[in-house]
């Protein structure tokens, strides 16, 4: 399977870097199987770069796959966005974009109900993210190439 990572530079050797903001699936190296989404990520930068990797599944890794936005997905995203750590090595599933993240914040703050969250959280286009959370998980990625993201 090919995976993409949008950035401002070529990343031949992905690393797990902790950012200052909690992300959907916690700390890790984020990729997507959707090339267009990675290009959108890269377009935030002056030198948008699309990194392409081949992913070879390692069945010995602890993997969590959310095939769609569900109650369990929402609870997991809230857990991770609150800065808590999980024990999965790879997590994949839909992405809570900025708008959905605002709805999650509103839900956590009690401004909207869970039912209101689900009514608001419908995406206009599909999203996907795959997070490599450990060094061992990163070994299942093989750098193929990078190119200007257009």
Topology as H/E string?
A: EEHEEHEHHEHE
Strand numbers in spatial order across the main sheet: 2-6-5-4
Largest pleated sheet: 4 strands, mixed
Number of helices in the DSSP assignment: 5
**Termini, distance in Å?**
21 Å
The rough form would be described as globular
Summing up helix and strand content along with how strands pair, one would put the structural category as: alpha+beta
Q: Give the uncertain stretches in residue-range form.
A: none
Work out the count of structural domains. Answer: 1
- Helix content bin: 25-40%
Number of strands: 7
| Gyration radius from CA atoms, angstroms | 15 Å
Structural features:
150 residues, 23% strand, three-stranded antiparallel sheet, single chain, four-stranded mixed sheet, 27% helix
What do you see in this structure?
The chain is globular and about 45 Å long. Strand 4 (about 65), helix 2 and strand 5 form a beta-alpha-beta unit. Strands 2-6-5-4 form a 4-stranded mixed sheet. The chain contains 5 helices and 7 strands, in the order E-E-H-E-E-H-E-H-H-E-H-E. It has one domain. The model has no long low-confidence stretch (mean pLDDT about 90). Helix 3 runs antiparallel to helix 4. It has about 150 residues and is an alpha+beta fold.
């Amino acid at each position: 399977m090919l995976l993409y990572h949008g950035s401002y530079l070529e990343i031949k050797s992905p690393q797990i870097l902790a950012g200052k903001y909690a992300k959907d699936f916690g700390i890790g190296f984020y990729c997507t199987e959707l090339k267009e989404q990675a290009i959108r990520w890269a377009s935030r930068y002056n030198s948008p770069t699309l990194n392409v990797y081949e992913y070879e599944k390692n069945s010995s890794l602890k993997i969590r796959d959310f095939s769609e936005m569900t109650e369990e997905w929402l609870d997991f995203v809230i857990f991770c966005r609150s800065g808590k750590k999980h024990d999965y090595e790879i997590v994949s599933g839909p992405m809570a974009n900025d708008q959905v993240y605002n709805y999650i914040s509103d839900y956590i703050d009690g401004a909207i109900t869970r039912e209101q969250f689900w009514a608001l959280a419908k995406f206009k286009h599909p999203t996907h993210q795959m997070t490599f959370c450990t060094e061992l998980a990163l070994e299942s990625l093989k750098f193929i190439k990078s190119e200007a993201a257009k």
